Amino acid sequence: MNIAIITGASSGIGKEFAIQLDKKEQFDEIWLVARRVAKMEELGNLLAAKIRVLPLDLTKDEDIEKFSYILEEEKPNVRYLVNSSGYGKFGSYEEVSLKDSAQMIDLNCKSLVLFTLHSIKYMEKGAHIINMGSASSFFPLPNFNVYASTKAFVVHYSHALYEELKPKGITVTVVSPGWVRTEF
Fold first, then answer.
1. Please, what's the b/e burial string for 41-59 (b: 16 or more CB within 10 A of its CB; e: otherwise)?
2. Could you report the per-residue pLDDT of 17-61, keeping only the tens digit for each?
3. Contact predicate 31/6, CB 8 Å
């Protein structure tokens, strides 16, 4: 079963990746991952491919384990993994709570790495990993410090992983857009 997996699929860039990949290639299923089921089901109505809605909160370890279990049970051929979920909070170090800072790190870095590592086991030559970075990753950004730092991690992780996966024929691309009009 050839699939694409897209995190952050309920809106914004993740939703757009689902639409564009559905036009570009044929998949047996597109797995949409986000917390908002209704939004993913609406998106499914726009896609030709069959969808699987995975309502997961990627800041929760147990939800990442659910994802791993689903992969293990299904053993799909993952053609695309798009890590598009992300979270950012504006404010100085005094204004952004410890909880918000930790959740940005958990979602933007930890879950991206874990989703990637779980998915690689089910990828073959010609598969693609697309990670969402940000233009903010290239600059120290006061009042958006933790977010920008997490995206710098994504950029470096993606570049290094690209080199590691090159012998397997799996590509890794990091996309680093500037400001985009989304719900973010």
1. eebbeebebebbbbebebb
2. 999 999 988 999 999 999 888 998 999 899 999 999 999 999 999
3. yes
Residue identified by tokens 């089921």 is 37
3-state secondary structure of 91: coil
Cβ burial 64-83 (10 Å sphere, 16+ → b, else e): beebbeebeeeebebbbbbb
pLDDT tens, position by position, 116-164 = 999 999 999 999 999 999 878 887 778 888 999 999 999 999 999 999 9
SS (H, E, C) 95-147: CCCHHHHHHHHHHHHHHHHHHHHHHHCCCCCCCEEEEECCHHHHCCCCCCHHH
Report which secondary-structure segment, H or E, holds 67. helix 61-74
pTM (2 d.p.): 0.91
For the chain, the 3-state helix, strand and coil shares in percent, each to the nearest 5, are: 45, 20, 35
- Residue positions counted in the chain: 184
